[in-house]
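Postdoc handover notes: sequence design on the structure in folder B. Input tokens:
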């Protein structure tokens, strides 16, 4: 179904059109329809089927831009996923002038606190950092009407459950709660009763063609893995892959063993600084690296375009992670390949995967020497072509928006309404032309929509704010 036919807010619809979301996926269509009935939802749908926009579209639709405190809270298990969802929220809500923020650990608290002092509609957070802000009294959750728990089975498992319950205890009872995951089992029912009211279950079975991910298994001994990995990279012509290991030191070890000048490889695990983690995942998304070697920190939710292969260098230690890891490829309408290395010790877990997800275990032999030799030459040629950098689509949404900095703020007792009032003195400026306004201590920022930035710049020259002159500067367009 086209988004156009789903009766969606015009600014949200326009943003979707610009980022090339024309047709709703099944899960999106169902969630958008159900949420209009204002019910709690438990949503299960395959990896890569568009669950993020399924909750973001109706949330953005329901937000009122006038509200000052957050109305929606989205919680996620990892920092990288938190950033990714906030970015998507920012795109979908951009033209409706919604303000989003990401609260995650490993980032300076004071910057987040400053953001929370401004108007924020949608908050994406990891549980630990959300609780830290709650303790500091810097995150006001009193008005939250929508709680979204992404990767819900993970968030409601032992590792996170207490934190999530703590957060929920700060929310008002009259709210909508929505759970999303590709793996939600019956065991979750009890806890759902505690945190939800009479939820509707949406279970999308055939969203993406079943065999869009080819799964292949290789039996080997631990010490054979590194050679097998290199050889498969050559013979399978692996262009862009995530290689999963179970431990941080293993990630570092493989990084060292694979690294060579022409091959661009990055790592991702919880022992790295957050700056490095964020940079590495962004570089991988921009197509600046061929391979990402990661622990399960990258197994859930992370979307990177065009991943051709997922390699389980170590077989996962729980069955759900198998589904999530291989789900990093074959996303939306694309196809992908999952290669798993199996040692004697992995047989039990492999059987669990087989039984629970009807996985057909197709073994392949590792390639022989001659094939590897030929393929290696070809791969060397491929490495000489530089990867083409991918640009984030969000810039298209900013095309008609200009951000202007004004050199007075709270120190001169300026408030949002003073800036709005001043802008309304310009004849051509209407309410919908004024975007997000941030008043900080010594300066303020205002966004002008609909390509009217230059016009505002021209007029500001002769204007005063609370009777005082000021200087201003265009920040971006
Ligand atoms: P899931 O959470 O179900 O694993 P995501 O929400 O991460 O999947 O979506 C996967 C990718 O599919 C997104 O990054 C986006 O690029 C794409 N996508 C989602 N919905 C649409 C749509 N309606 N039209 C086009 N692309 C979409
Ligand atoms: Mg997701």
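Designed sequence:
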């Amino acid at each position: 179904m086209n988004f156009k036919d789903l009766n969606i807010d015009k600014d949200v619809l326009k943003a979707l059109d610009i980022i090339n979301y024309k047709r709703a996926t099944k899960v999106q269509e169902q969630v958008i329809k159900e949420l209009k009935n204002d019910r709690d939802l438990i949503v299960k749908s395959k990896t890569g089927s568009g669950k993020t926009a399924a909750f973001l579209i109706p949330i953005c639709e329901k937000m009122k831009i006038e509200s000052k405190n957050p109305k929606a809270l989205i919680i996620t298990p990892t920092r990288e996923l938190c950033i990714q969802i906030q970015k998507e929220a920012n795109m979908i809500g951009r033209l409706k002038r919604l303000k989003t923020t990401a609260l995650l650990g490993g980032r300076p608290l004071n910057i987040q606190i400053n953001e929370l002092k401004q108007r924020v509609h949608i908050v994406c957070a990891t549980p630990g950092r959300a609780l830290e802000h709650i303790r500091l009294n810097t995150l006001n959750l009193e008005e939250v009407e929508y709680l979204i728990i992404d990767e819900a089975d993970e968030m409601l498992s032992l590792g996170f459950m207490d934190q999530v319950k703590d957060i929920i205890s700060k929310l008002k009872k009259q709210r909508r709660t929505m759970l999303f995951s590709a793996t939600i089992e019956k065991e979750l029912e009890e806890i759902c009763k505690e945190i939800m009211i009479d939820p509707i279950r949406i279970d999308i079975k055939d969203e993406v063609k079943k065999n869009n991910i080819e799964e292949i298994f290789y039996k080997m001994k631990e010490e054979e893995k590194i050679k097998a990995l290199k050889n498969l990279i050559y013979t399978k012509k692996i262009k862009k892959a995530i290689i999963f290991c179970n431990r941080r030191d293993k990630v570092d070890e493989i990084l060292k063993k694979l690294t060579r000048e022409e091959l661009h490889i990055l790592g991702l695990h919880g022992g790295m600084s957050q700056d490095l983690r964020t940079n590495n995942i962004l570089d991988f998304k921009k197509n600046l690296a061929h391979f990402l070697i990661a622990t399960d920190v990258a197994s859930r939710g992370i979307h990177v375009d065009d991943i051709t292969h997922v390699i389980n260098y170590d077989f996962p230690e729980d069955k759900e992670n198998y589904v999530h890891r291989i789900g990093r490829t074959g996303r939306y309408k694309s196809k992908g390949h999952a290669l798993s290395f199996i040692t004697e010790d992995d047989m039990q877990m492999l059987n669990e995967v087989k039984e629970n997800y009807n996985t057909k275990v197709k073994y392949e032999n590792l390639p022989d020497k001659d094939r590897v030799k030929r393929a290696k030459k070809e791969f060397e040629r491929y490495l000489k072509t530089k990867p083409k950098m991918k640009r984030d689509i969000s810039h298209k949404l900013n095309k008609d928006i200009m951000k202007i900095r004004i050199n007075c703020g709270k120190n001169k007792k300026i408030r949002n309404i003073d800036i709005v009032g001043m802008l309304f003195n310009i004849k051509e400026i209407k309410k919908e032309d004024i975007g997000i306004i941030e008043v900080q201590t010594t300066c303020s920022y205002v966004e002008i929509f609909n390509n009217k930035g230059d016009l505002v710049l021209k007029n500001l020259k002769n204007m005063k704010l609370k009777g005082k002159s000021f200087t201003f500067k265009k920040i971006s367009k």
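Context for whoever picks this up: The pocket of adenosine-5'-diphosphate (ligand 1) is lined by residues 21, 23-25, 28, 45, 47-53, 303, 331-332 (CB under 6 Å). Don't rerun without checking with the PI first.
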